[in-house]
């Protein structure tokens, strides 16, 4: 701030030139060069300004580096998420295919089950029919056997049954 005020004073003193007189020309020749204290003051101000600018640039550079690090982390995370999303989509497609296959297998199993059930019912009906026929034959056989066979042969036939 001091430097700015000093620069403004120096600039304003040279902005309105007038015709110098002889006495003024002599003092002007002496004043042409700045005093050593003024030069030191200006140099110190410029040095402080340089240090401030260097610190500002360093802080800005650190902030930019931090932003780039965060962007790199974000990019890595985004890449990982996109890889996971593509894997999930692939697995979803596989599951859909498997579901279609399982539905087809399930329908096939249902039709086979219905077919087996109807055959089992047919077999049970045939078995019952055969039992009734065998029962009828046994009665006829026992009736015939009692009249044609001896008691020992009837006992033998009963044991065979």
TrEMBL record:
Q: Which UniProt keywords apply?
A: Coiled coil, Signal
Q: Does the keyword Signal apply?
A: yes
Q: Which Gene3D superfamilies match?
A: Methyl-accepting chemotaxis protein
What start and end residues bound the annotated signal peptide? 1-15
Coiled-coil zones:
88-140
Q: Which InterPro entries match?
A: ANGPTL8
Q: Which domain of life is it from?
A: Eukaryota
**PANTHER family per UniProt:** ANGIOPOIETIN-LIKE PROTEIN 8 (PTHR21463)
Q: What is this protein called?
A: Uncharacterized protein
User: Which organism was this protein described from?
Assistant: Cirrhinus mrigala
């Amino acid at each position: 701030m001091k430097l700015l005020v000093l620069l403004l004073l120096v600039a304003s003193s040279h902005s309105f030139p007038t015709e110098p007189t002889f006495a003024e020309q002599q003092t002007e020749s002496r004043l042409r060069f700045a005093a050593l204290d003024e030069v030191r003051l200006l140099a110190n101000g410029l040095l402080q300004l340089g240090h401030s600018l260097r610190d500002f640039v360093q802080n800005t550079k650190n902030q930019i580096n931090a932003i780039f690090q965060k962007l790199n982390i974000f990019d890595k995370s985004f890449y990982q998420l996109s890889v996971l999303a593509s894997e999930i989509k692939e697995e979803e497609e596989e599951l859909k295919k498997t579901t279609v296959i399982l539905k087809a297998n399930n329908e096939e199993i249902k039709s086979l089950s219905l077919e087996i059930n109807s055959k089992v019912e047919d077999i049970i009906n045939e078995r019952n029919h055969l039992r009734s026929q065998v029962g009828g034959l046994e009665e006829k056989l026992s009736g015939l056997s009692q009249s044609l066979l001896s008691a020992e042969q009837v006992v033998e036939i009963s044991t065979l049954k």
